[in-house]
Amino acid sequence: MQGQLDMEGALTARDRVGIQDFVLLDETTEAAFLSNLKKRFSKDLIYTYIGTLLVSVNPYKELDIYNMKQMDLYMGVNFFELPPHIYALADNAYHTMLTEFNNHFILISGESGAGKTEASKKILQYYAVSCPSTTLLNTVRDKMLMSNPVLEAFGNAKTLKNYNSSRFGKYMDIQFDSQGDAVGGHILNYMLEKSRVVHQNHGERNFHIFYQLVEGGEEDLLHQLGLERDSQHYNYLTQGECAIVSSINDRNDWKTVKNALQIINIDEINTNHLFGTVASVLHLGNVQFDSDSKGHALLNSNNSELRWVSNLLGVDAHRLQEGLTYRKIEAQKDQILSPFTIDHAIYARDALAKAIYGQTFTWLVNRINESIENKWEPVQFFNNKIICDLVEEKHRGIISILDEECLRPGDVTDLTFLERLEEKMGNHPHFVTHKLADKMTRKTLERGDFRLLHYAGEVTYCVVATQFKSSLLKLTEILMAKEAWYIRCLKSNESKQPGQFDEALIRHQVKYLGLMEHLRVRRAGFAYRRKFEVFLKRYKPLCPATWPHWRGVPADGVEVLVQHLGYLPDEYKMGRFIKGYMTRGQAKSTDNSEYLAFVRQNYLNRLKGNLPKTVLDKTTWQTPPAVLTETSEILRKLYYRLMVRKYVRGITPQKKAQFQLKLLTSSIFKAKKDSYPQSVAQPFVDTRISEQDINMKVLQMIRNEHIKYSVPVIKYDRNGFKPRPRQLILTKTAAYVIEEAKIKQKVLYTSLNGISVSNLTDGMIVFHITCEDRKQKGDLVIQCDHLFESLTKLAVIANKQNAIKVVQGSIKIEIQAGKESAVDFSTGQEPMVYKAKNGHLMVVR
Fold it and tell me: In terms of Cα–Cα distance, which of 552, 550, 532, 533 is closest to 541?
């Protein structure tokens, strides 16, 4: 007992550096937040609270704060009784779960290298020690703990920012019984970075397991798998040029993984198959291709690597070779083999490697789940064969139809696949789509959905990006059903050095993790966020009036309970967003904005509940009884007139002017210039250069003329076509080309014969100017990013709507009287503007 008191005293003294809960800061500014974080970090205090949210800063060194004494200290202690620690959050989540009998989750977020993986390990280790212990429960906890090194070996890799970066998303369920015993678990993985198997950026590695197998595998095992103890020998392991890293001990990690596989009950046969599959990916990456005289891919004469892949996967070598070098097309009973080029063969090889590794990872996660899950008694269930046939039946199931669509020539989309399903399965009693559904069911289906009627209920699928969306939606549904605890992990510096606090980097992370916003919300009112029902259920035994059952409104029961316990009115407040409620009559601020938004949303929800079942819109009109047909038609016309009148009256003078300019632009450029459609949605502005950005000398020289519009342009010299940045200013009578404080050219609108642009997507404009005027220098060639806006403004100001021409191919220009050249236009892969050999200005788009 004395030792525990000494430990508490030491922790309390140590924690006096800074503020341990940001809610207690005197100022809620970003500077004060960072200052407190830095002050605590300098003393190795890496944890700080924002209410019940835990902020963790990666120290990039080992700290003696995760030992058994620390765990004992935080077990069963009130959340704020001891200094901030990840053990405190884990313990309170655990005990809140037990007392309130509901599910909880801990969400750990932050960028790569911020310490998310380590944080999850510390939580698991804490539960392994703090939960009740029996032989059976110890086995479950050991399996949960040892699943980590296995998942890290197969799902983590070295990146530029992190030597042990998780390249997949992981959600782990720990299942407890009513006594708080850990009885099982489940792991959900999503978005594995399979592309890393075949390609790594410079300075990065493939998944750890490949290097662990090559560097740490026993000689007999390597011989059995056909591998050499040299990572440089394998194409998939050398692209990042850092196969060997001094800070990563692949041999020791290999031993840990082997031991972990035994603990999670993966037997020797399956372990050998697992490593054989991993080895097959390495051999597959070394398969090389040559080409014949027609450019078709052929396997390299030395195809020993392919034989190893065949042996390790148990696949016929000839079929494997055929699959890598040919595309097979099946048309009814005929099969056509179309040879690959080398690029296609390499793509097929890499795609196969990614698929093998992805399926292996999924299998591994499933085996871990089988090992750690809670064993349930078997129950009788409905024979689901009809649904299995609907999905998997050869030539007739959904999977077969999908395969056919993927091989079909022509424009194949998600919706054509759905149409094919409707054609083939329209009469199936367990299949329905938006098109096939009745009127009521159709309201619950999107046009891209189909629904299978399973024995346990209806399941809706979307043909668009289903695999990606379903994994995230599944995770979201899981989290939404549970009470949340949050850990925000921050990187202290990019170089992974201990003791370095990069303020700019941390400021950036504080912003995008929303920590300042979270702090303001927590300070806006009372932090207790339980529902009245939950609070009353938990504490009702403390008051005779509420025990054993409260028959009234839960909020009233809570009021009776706290009054019975003797709390003063200023010690608690009922309701949500209390501070917002108290300041609701004041101007909108950070104190009341969230409360006002909440009230508004509730009001709209109440309105929504009172709306009629069918509401008129712009496209539908209810069919009336026959006797009211004439009246309905009169009302319909009046209704549409009213809609138009309301819309027109809502158009401001500014909008009207905008529409008029857009109509003029349409009359000049629509169906003539390729970039016109992209410009329609872009609103025009009054000017692109403010008067403050125009030189004072220029303003004085044109002070008698009102500036109507100005825009930055690139002007091309008449001799040599050298590009020069300029300003184009339009006044009532002339257009001015400005270079800083000089007027380089003044083009009177009366001297402007015409304006030419190309039909492509470039921004080139040619002003054709009367060369007999000695004050003019010839035609003006400019490039403008706001071509449609500039020329529309010029057309209105100079009344030159009919002078603008859209030209194909080439625009002739007059450099000076009697001397001509041209601007030529063509399409290409990269846009560029240059002087061609024929002396013309060449514009490529």
Answer: 550
